[in-house]
Design brief:
Immunoglobulin-like, 18% strand
Length: 528
Amino acid sequence: MANGLIIPGVQVTVVKEVLPQQLAPSGVLGLIGFTERIEQTDQGQPKVTRAGSWPRYVEALGRASAYSLPEARQALDNGVAELVISPLPESAGATARVAVPGDDAQAKAFRALLDKAVREATAAADEAKRKLDATKKDSAVGSDALKEAEAHHVAAKARLEGATAAQKAGSDVSNDNAGFTLRARAPGPWANGLVVQVSYRESLEPSVSFDLKVLRRVAGREEVLELYRGQTLATCAATMRASAFVKVDETKALGWPRAAEYTLAGGQDASAADYAAALERLRDEADVDMVLAAVQDFSDLTRVARVYGSVISHCDALSDECRGRVGFGQVPRTGSLEAHAQLANNLVSDRFVLVAPNGVVGAVAGMVGSLPYFQSPTFKRLSGLAELPPLSTEEQKALLRGNVVPVALERGRGTIVLRGLTTDGDQINVRRVADRAVRMLKMVGDLFIGLLNNADGRTALKQKLVESLVQMEKDGALVPSTDGKDPAFKVEVYSSQADFAQGIVRVNMAVRPVRAIDYIYATITVQV
């Protein structure tokens, strides 16, 4: 009676059911590489940036990032759920540069024009002053004419002041073949070979100006990235601040550039330690389930193996925290099939995928991210790729025997992934299903931390796990054995007396991930 009703009636107590949250969508790609712009924390450290679309990516990181990190566009074109970019700092790699020598002839011509402009402005100012004085002395002149004469005088004085200032600025410019130095907006080898053309023309105004054109030449094709017309030394530095690809090194003396074509060089990739530090910044991004280190320089395979080894270590470490990830990498642009297979053999893991040929890994990761987590990428089509080097049947077999994922152009199918497998030879989707089950168990288990360790609590935990696993089975991610004798999953929840004393509940869970059909063996009997 003390805790119940006094007057006969009904008392209702509402108990809120424990409902697990929805898991984050699969297919979130963590991307490491150089970008044009770097968002920074309050402490001045590189900051992780998220982009779910190409406009957002360009807006946040700049147009040059399309070239310094081409995997981003490939992944978005192939439907990745979201990009989480951890940029390498500008100090991580060397920046491509080019020294543009000065042209004394152009400097002299420029100064001559400035001197001429000062002489003409001086004469115009004197003439306006003479007319103003004459107008003031003429008593028959009206107020409107006087105002007009005064306005002409003011305009002439302003023109003279501007010409004099330009003459002084021109005299301060170093002419002894100083020129200027251009450097790429983002470090790394991507800018090696970037071309800047300098050409002169007579502008409509009485001054010398030059045009700057930024080009990119790849495989015999030329792409005009930017064009700036009518530049002078006064405008060049400011214009290049707005450029997405190159900028003027303003710490050096400026001089009129010599008309010619200049190629940027000297860009270098980041070290393995720099990539590892950028990977570490992805640790707290809980929804990331794929990782790609966008290595640019493949000349040192030992360094490349260290970078990809860091990716594998990162994925393994987070799997211990119930946030398993799958890493992606690619083979070098050159090298034998045996070298590619050896690289895969040095990176054996059920959490790493090595893709061939070079230049398609972003598309593969994006396509995997667009699929439901239990679907295999085998024979799935890729989009947004340029012409690929052909792979013969024997080359495809050699890559597959080395557990390298081949991407090939198939007649009637387009560009496809021949088989989606990790470097230990297992299917990618099997690993992703297992990781999904682990994340689900962690999410459900977190809801029961702090609740009572009694029969009802353990039963409720088991029911919630079974509920989630049944949903995975309905989705097609988990399947029973082919003979139907074993179920798609098994769950056991218990606590021994020793566990009970320490507040421990143990869960044993077995799941059978669905596998893709990679091969079909058929026997046809011809009856006579």
